[in-house]
Amino acid sequence: MKSALLAAVTAPSLLFGSIAFGQSTAEFEVIEGSTAGLTLTVTIDTSIGTSSDVDTTVQQVTGFANANFDPAVPPFLAMELPELEFNLGTGDVSYDLFCLPIFGCQTLDITVSDFIIRLDKGGVAAPLKGDFAFFPDAPFVSSFNYSVSGDLVNIEGSNVVPDFYSFGTDVIPLKGNDLLLDNLLLQTFSFELDPADLPVGVNNVTIEAQVDLSGTALFGTLESSCSPGDFNCDGCVDGGDLGILLAAWGTPGSDLSGDGSTDGADLGIFLSLWGC
Asked: How many CB atoms lie within 10 A of CB 266?
Protein backbone atom coordinates (compact mmCIF):
# COMPACT_ATOMS: atom_id res chain seq x y z
CA MET A 1 0.00 0.00 0.00
CA LYS A 2 1.56 3.26 -1.16
CA SER A 3 1.22 6.46 0.83
CA ALA A 4 -0.13 9.45 -1.05
CA LEU A 5 1.54 12.84 -0.90
CA LEU A 6 -0.22 14.99 1.70
CA ALA A 7 -0.73 18.70 1.26
CA ALA A 8 0.63 20.88 4.05
CA VAL A 9 -1.52 21.03 7.18
CA THR A 10 -0.29 22.57 10.42
CA ALA A 11 0.77 19.92 12.95
CA PRO A 12 3.69 19.85 15.39
CA SER A 13 6.97 18.67 13.80
CA LEU A 14 5.16 16.73 11.08
CA LEU A 15 6.59 16.84 7.55
CA PHE A 16 3.78 15.50 5.43
CA GLY A 17 4.16 12.97 2.65
CA SER A 18 7.38 11.49 4.02
CA ILE A 19 8.88 9.88 7.08
CA ALA A 20 9.89 13.01 8.95
CA PHE A 21 12.05 13.86 11.94
CA GLY A 22 10.77 12.06 14.99
CA GLN A 23 8.16 10.03 13.12
CA SER A 24 7.09 6.42 13.18
CA THR A 25 4.65 4.63 10.88
CA ALA A 26 2.00 1.96 11.29
CA GLU A 27 -0.10 -0.12 8.93
CA PHE A 28 -3.53 -0.93 10.35
CA GLU A 29 -6.11 -3.56 9.46
CA VAL A 30 -9.76 -3.58 10.52
CA ILE A 31 -10.14 -6.19 13.25
CA GLU A 32 -12.02 -9.28 12.10
CA GLY A 33 -15.64 -9.24 13.25
CA SER A 34 -15.93 -5.45 13.17
CA THR A 35 -19.37 -4.13 12.24
CA ALA A 36 -20.98 -0.85 11.20
CA GLY A 37 -24.55 0.28 11.55
CA LEU A 38 -25.66 1.69 8.19
CA THR A 39 -28.73 3.94 8.47
CA LEU A 40 -30.16 5.19 5.17
CA THR A 41 -32.87 7.84 5.10
CA VAL A 42 -34.66 8.03 1.73
CA THR A 43 -36.57 11.11 0.63
CA ILE A 44 -38.59 11.02 -2.62
CA ASP A 45 -39.97 14.15 -4.23
CA THR A 46 -42.76 13.50 -6.74
CA SER A 47 -45.47 15.43 -8.55
CA ILE A 48 -47.90 14.49 -5.76
CA GLY A 49 -45.64 15.47 -2.86
CA THR A 50 -42.64 14.43 -0.78
CA SER A 51 -42.21 11.43 1.52
CA SER A 52 -39.32 9.95 3.51
CA ASP A 53 -38.55 6.89 5.60
CA VAL A 54 -35.53 5.41 7.38
CA ASP A 55 -34.11 1.90 7.78
CA THR A 56 -30.93 0.44 9.30
CA THR A 57 -28.79 -2.59 8.56
CA VAL A 58 -25.69 -3.91 10.33
CA GLN A 59 -22.74 -4.56 8.01
CA GLN A 60 -19.52 -6.53 8.38
CA VAL A 61 -16.58 -4.19 7.85
CA THR A 62 -13.14 -4.78 6.36
CA GLY A 63 -10.50 -2.20 5.56
CA PHE A 64 -7.11 -0.71 6.33
CA ALA A 65 -5.24 2.47 7.18
CA ASN A 66 -1.69 3.78 6.91
CA ALA A 67 -0.57 6.30 9.51
CA ASN A 68 2.44 8.41 10.46
CA PHE A 69 2.96 9.66 14.01
CA ASP A 70 5.01 12.38 15.64
CA PRO A 71 6.96 11.89 17.86
CA ALA A 72 8.05 8.31 17.25
CA VAL A 73 6.44 6.96 20.45
CA PRO A 74 3.35 7.84 22.50
CA PRO A 75 2.15 10.25 23.73
CA PHE A 76 1.77 11.44 20.13
CA LEU A 77 1.43 15.10 19.22
CA ALA A 78 0.22 14.62 15.65
CA MET A 79 -1.10 11.98 13.27
CA GLU A 80 -1.15 11.77 9.50
CA LEU A 81 -3.48 9.44 7.58
CA PRO A 82 -2.32 9.10 3.97
CA GLU A 83 -4.69 6.15 3.44
CA LEU A 84 -7.90 4.96 5.07
CA GLU A 85 -10.56 2.65 3.63
CA PHE A 86 -13.68 0.91 4.91
CA ASN A 87 -15.56 -1.73 2.89
CA LEU A 88 -19.14 -2.24 4.08
CA GLY A 89 -20.01 -4.93 1.51
CA THR A 90 -23.68 -5.41 0.60
CA GLY A 91 -26.74 -4.25 2.56
CA ASP A 92 -30.53 -4.32 2.09
CA VAL A 93 -33.03 -1.77 3.38
CA SER A 94 -36.79 -1.34 2.88
CA TYR A 95 -39.15 1.63 3.07
CA ASP A 96 -42.85 2.52 3.27
CA LEU A 97 -43.62 5.83 1.55
CA PHE A 98 -46.67 8.00 0.87
CA CYS A 99 -48.72 6.02 3.38
CA LEU A 100 -52.46 6.79 3.32
CA PRO A 101 -55.43 5.34 5.21
CA ILE A 102 -57.19 2.58 3.27
CA PHE A 103 -54.73 2.79 0.37
CA GLY A 104 -51.67 1.73 2.40
CA CYS A 105 -48.04 2.53 1.53
CA GLN A 106 -45.82 2.58 -1.52
CA THR A 107 -42.95 0.15 -0.85
CA LEU A 108 -39.33 0.64 -1.86
CA ASP A 109 -36.44 -1.82 -1.50
CA ILE A 110 -32.82 -0.75 -1.91
CA THR A 111 -29.74 -2.96 -2.17
CA VAL A 112 -26.35 -1.26 -1.86
CA SER A 113 -23.31 -3.36 -2.82
CA ASP A 114 -19.54 -2.86 -2.95
CA PHE A 115 -20.00 0.07 -0.57
CA ILE A 116 -16.52 1.55 -0.02
CA ILE A 117 -15.65 4.69 1.93
CA ARG A 118 -12.04 5.85 1.52
CA LEU A 119 -9.89 8.91 1.92
CA ASP A 120 -9.20 10.71 -1.32
CA LYS A 121 -5.65 11.27 -2.59
CA GLY A 122 -3.74 13.51 -0.24
CA GLY A 123 -5.10 12.14 3.01
CA VAL A 124 -5.36 14.18 6.20
CA ALA A 125 -3.32 15.21 9.22
CA ALA A 126 -4.16 16.73 12.59
CA PRO A 127 -2.77 17.28 16.09
CA LEU A 128 -3.90 14.95 18.87
CA LYS A 129 -5.76 16.09 21.96
CA GLY A 130 -4.91 13.41 24.46
CA ASP A 131 -5.53 10.16 22.59
CA PHE A 132 -8.06 11.68 20.18
CA ALA A 133 -7.32 12.76 16.61
CA PHE A 134 -10.01 14.76 14.81
CA PHE A 135 -9.90 15.51 11.08
CA PRO A 136 -12.52 18.14 10.11
CA ASP A 137 -13.57 18.30 6.47
CA ALA A 138 -11.52 15.26 5.42
CA PRO A 139 -11.65 14.49 1.67
CA PHE A 140 -13.56 11.21 1.33
CA VAL A 141 -14.88 9.32 -1.68
CA SER A 142 -17.83 6.92 -1.30
CA SER A 143 -18.53 4.45 -4.10
CA PHE A 144 -21.23 1.80 -4.42
CA ASN A 145 -23.64 0.00 -6.71
CA TYR A 146 -27.36 0.23 -6.05
CA SER A 147 -30.59 -1.47 -7.01
CA VAL A 148 -33.87 0.31 -6.26
CA SER A 149 -37.17 -1.52 -6.75
CA GLY A 150 -40.73 -0.75 -5.73
CA ASP A 151 -44.03 0.83 -6.63
CA LEU A 152 -42.48 4.16 -7.58
CA VAL A 153 -38.96 3.47 -8.89
CA ASN A 154 -37.15 0.53 -10.50
CA ILE A 155 -33.56 1.39 -11.39
CA GLU A 156 -30.01 0.07 -11.06
CA GLY A 157 -26.78 1.97 -11.22
CA SER A 158 -23.57 3.01 -9.50
CA ASN A 159 -22.45 6.16 -7.78
CA VAL A 160 -19.17 7.83 -6.82
CA VAL A 161 -19.57 10.60 -4.24
CA PRO A 162 -16.55 12.81 -3.47
CA ASP A 163 -17.20 15.07 -0.50
CA PHE A 164 -15.73 16.38 2.74
CA TYR A 165 -16.72 14.60 5.97
CA SER A 166 -15.32 14.97 9.46
CA PHE A 167 -13.60 11.88 10.88
CA GLY A 168 -12.19 11.10 14.32
CA THR A 169 -10.48 8.26 16.16
CA ASP A 170 -8.88 7.43 19.48
CA VAL A 171 -5.24 6.29 19.15
CA ILE A 172 -4.72 3.82 21.99
CA PRO A 173 -1.21 2.47 22.79
CA LEU A 174 -1.17 -1.20 23.68
CA LYS A 175 1.67 -3.38 24.93
CA GLY A 176 4.96 -3.01 23.09
CA ASN A 177 4.60 -1.20 19.77
CA ASP A 178 0.99 -2.20 19.15
CA LEU A 179 -1.70 0.43 18.59
CA LEU A 180 -5.50 0.43 18.39
CA LEU A 181 -7.67 2.89 16.46
CA ASP A 182 -11.02 2.83 18.25
CA ASN A 183 -14.15 4.91 18.94
CA LEU A 184 -14.32 5.94 15.29
CA LEU A 185 -16.55 8.83 14.22
CA LEU A 186 -17.71 9.61 10.68
CA GLN A 187 -19.96 12.51 9.73
CA THR A 188 -23.31 11.81 8.06
CA PHE A 189 -23.33 12.42 4.30
CA SER A 190 -25.94 12.43 1.53
CA PHE A 191 -26.23 11.88 -2.21
CA GLU A 192 -28.85 11.95 -4.95
CA LEU A 193 -29.75 9.40 -7.60
CA ASP A 194 -29.22 10.58 -11.17
CA PRO A 195 -32.42 12.43 -12.18
CA ALA A 196 -32.01 11.04 -15.72
CA ASP A 197 -32.62 7.53 -14.32
CA LEU A 198 -35.87 8.44 -12.56
CA PRO A 199 -39.30 7.72 -14.07
CA VAL A 200 -41.76 10.43 -15.08
CA GLY A 201 -43.42 11.93 -12.01
CA VAL A 202 -40.43 11.32 -9.69
CA ASN A 203 -38.42 14.52 -9.45
CA ASN A 204 -35.70 13.62 -7.00
CA VAL A 205 -34.46 10.78 -4.75
CA THR A 206 -32.09 11.80 -1.94
CA ILE A 207 -30.38 9.28 0.36
CA GLU A 208 -28.75 10.34 3.62
CA ALA A 209 -26.19 7.84 4.96
CA GLN A 210 -25.22 7.60 8.61
CA VAL A 211 -22.39 5.12 9.20
CA ASP A 212 -22.00 4.15 12.86
CA LEU A 213 -18.43 2.86 13.25
CA SER A 214 -18.61 2.34 17.02
CA GLY A 215 -18.36 -1.43 16.39
CA THR A 216 -15.25 -1.04 14.21
CA ALA A 217 -11.61 -0.92 15.33
CA LEU A 218 -8.22 -1.18 13.59
CA PHE A 219 -5.05 -2.84 14.89
CA GLY A 220 -1.50 -1.93 13.88
CA THR A 221 2.13 -1.99 14.98
CA LEU A 222 4.51 0.97 15.09
CA GLU A 223 7.63 0.80 12.98
CA SER A 224 10.52 3.21 13.44
CA SER A 225 14.13 3.47 12.27
CA CYS A 226 15.12 5.24 15.50
CA SER A 227 17.58 3.59 17.89
CA PRO A 228 16.24 2.38 21.26
CA GLY A 229 15.84 5.34 23.61
CA ASP A 230 16.12 7.89 20.79
CA PHE A 231 12.44 8.76 20.92
CA ASN A 232 12.72 11.96 18.88
CA CYS A 233 15.00 10.36 16.26
CA ASP A 234 17.69 13.05 16.36
CA GLY A 235 20.52 10.51 16.55
CA CYS A 236 21.20 10.96 20.27
CA VAL A 237 19.73 9.69 23.53
CA ASP A 238 19.62 12.86 25.60
CA GLY A 239 17.45 15.32 27.52
CA GLY A 240 14.90 15.64 24.73
CA ASP A 241 14.25 11.92 24.87
CA LEU A 242 14.15 11.96 28.68
CA GLY A 243 11.29 14.46 28.49
CA ILE A 244 9.37 12.14 26.17
CA LEU A 245 9.98 9.18 28.49
CA LEU A 246 8.76 11.10 31.54
CA ALA A 247 5.66 12.27 29.64
CA ALA A 248 4.87 8.62 28.91
CA TRP A 249 5.35 7.49 32.54
CA GLY A 250 2.83 4.82 33.53
CA THR A 251 1.79 4.18 29.92
CA PRO A 252 3.16 1.81 27.23
CA GLY A 253 4.55 4.82 25.32
CA SER A 254 8.29 4.61 26.12
CA ASP A 255 8.39 1.00 27.30
CA LEU A 256 11.96 -0.24 26.72
CA SER A 257 11.77 -3.35 28.92
CA GLY A 258 8.77 -4.89 27.14
CA ASP A 259 6.59 -5.19 30.26
CA GLY A 260 3.87 -2.92 28.87
CA SER A 261 4.50 0.12 31.10
CA THR A 262 6.97 3.01 31.27
CA ASP A 263 8.55 2.93 34.75
CA GLY A 264 11.79 2.79 36.70
CA ALA A 265 13.07 -0.24 34.80
CA ASP A 266 12.77 1.68 31.54
CA LEU A 267 14.49 4.71 33.04
CA GLY A 268 17.46 2.50 33.99
CA ILE A 269 17.68 1.10 30.47
CA PHE A 270 17.35 4.60 29.05
CA LEU A 271 20.22 6.00 31.13
CA SER A 272 22.44 3.13 30.00
CA LEU A 273 21.83 4.22 26.39
CA TRP A 274 22.68 7.90 27.04
CA GLY A 275 24.82 9.59 24.42
CA CYS A 276 25.27 9.97 20.67
From this structure: 21
